[in-house]
Design a protein that fits this description.
Number of helices: 3
Number of domains: 1
Strand content: 15-25%
Order of helices and strands: HEEEEHHE
Radius of gyration: 15 Å
Shape: globular
Largest sheet: 5 strands, mixed
Structural class: alpha+beta
Helix content: 10-25%
Amino acid sequence: MPHVTLRYLPHEGWCDWQFQNLLEFGHAIAFNQLPVAFDPIVEVVSSYKYIRLQAALWEATTEGGRILGASFNFCMDDPAALALLDGMFSYVQGDAFKPTVEMPLETVIQPVLDGIQFRSLRGNDGNFYEGMSIL
């Protein structure tokens, strides 16, 4: 069953053309080195040459709260971006927003927000759109 954040964005269980603008010049969060379970809403599949656990949309519980992380290219004139944002906002405001993955603020969330986990993959093996990078 598709995640409710994707309810307004038609898809067949994978990212097709409607995701192109969202992914192009977007980012992915790398989970390989993070001490948490990997359960993304939208996984960015890596190349078979170098397997990475990475996501463009994910959720987690933290000490005292919840977080929905998205690293897409949200262009406000893209209907797919607006549909996804609408689904995301509806989800976080509703009762269904109950992430199962726990991410400690100090060891996971804060380093990501501080930029410690961020790095670019420009000049990669062509698995991403040209402007996409990994965080």
